[in-house]
Automatic annotation (TrEMBL):
Boundaries of every SGNH hydrolase-type esterase domain copy: 29-244
SUPFAM superfamilies according to UniProt: SGNH hydrolase (SSF52266)
Organism: Nocardiopsis kunsanensis
Keyword Signal: yes
Protein name, entry field: Lipase 1
Gene3D superfamilies noted in UniProt: SGNH hydrolase
Range of residues in the leader sequence: 1-20
Length: 256
């Protein structure tokens, strides 16, 4: 073996342990419907609407993990995470992902009111929700983040946010009007900014997915979010592309 070819092998010798480390990851996926996969139309768990097209499933399938526990559940609030999901964490958990907060401020009810009510109705419920984000949500997030880090003290905790739901412009018959879409996007930003601030303050890894979904909201030519659908509970949630093209690359990038 020549000196040059011998030296060429040195980087390989030093990079090999990194591959071994990825195989040791113990991953737990917590959260609400944006983590469980509601909206993808393919579920293994009909109660929590957990499915194989959800971003935690996609990440776990493409990475060598020592263990993987998927406990995110549609409709979950911070109280549900504390009561029903935290128990999945252990001292040896290495990675935790979570989306949470939207149900605590009644965002689903806000969307329903904006879809069926007047612009004034939408403004009113939007203001109420934003007050909840400012006054109530911080304490709930702090309690939840603290419980996660205490239950899994060695884990990297990745808090993923929510996308803006809508694009502006023409949207077809029966769609939500543009003023309401703008108002709902403003509320999504208020919620997203609060989650970012509190996750960062807690020393966790925050992943903002709003830019990833930009141009792919409801009313886009290539939407990654469902509009009003049947069944109704899948409305305004990421579809399969939203998880594969929106959430998964954002998570992968944060862990790179």
């Amino acid at each position: 073996m020549s000196a040059v070819s011998g030296l060429a092998l040195i980087p390989l010798l030093f990079t090999a342990p990194a591959a071994a480390e990825t195989a040791d990851i113990n991953y737990v996926a917590l959260g609400d419907s944006y983590s469980s996969g509601l909206g993808t139309r393919d579920y293994d768990d009909s109660a929590c609407k957990r499915g194989p097209a959800a971003y935690p499933e996609l990440w776990a399938a493409s990475n060598a993990t020592a263990s993987y526990d998927f406990v995110a559940c549609a409709g979950a609030t911070t109280d549900d995470v504390l009561a029903n999901q935290i128990s999945a964490l252990e001292q040896g958990t290495d990675l935790v992902t979570i989306t949470i907060g939207g149900n605590d401020v009644g965002f689903a009810d806000v969307i329903t009111t904006c879809r069926t009510g007047s612009n004034a109705d939408c403004d009113e419920v939007g203001e109420e929700a934003e007050n909840e984000v400012r006054d109530v949500l911080p304490g709930l997030l702090e309690e939840t983040y603290t419980a996660i880090t205490e239950a899994a003290p060695s884990a990297q905790v990745v808090v993923l946010g929510y996308p803006r739901l809508f694009e502006m412009g023409s949207c077809g018959f029966g769609s939500i009007g543009e003023p309401k879409r703008e108002r709902l996007n403003q509320m999504a930003d208020t919620l997203g900014d609060a989650i970012a601030d509190h996750a960062t303050a807690a020393g966790l890894t925050h992943v903002d997915v709003r830019d990833n979904f930009d141009g792919h909201g409801v009313c886009a030519d290539d939407p990654w979010l469902n509009g009003t659908t049947v069944p109704l509970d899948e409305s305004y949630h990421p579809n399969g592309a939203g998880h594969a093209e929106g959430y998964l690359p954002a998570l992968t990038g944060a862990l790179a």
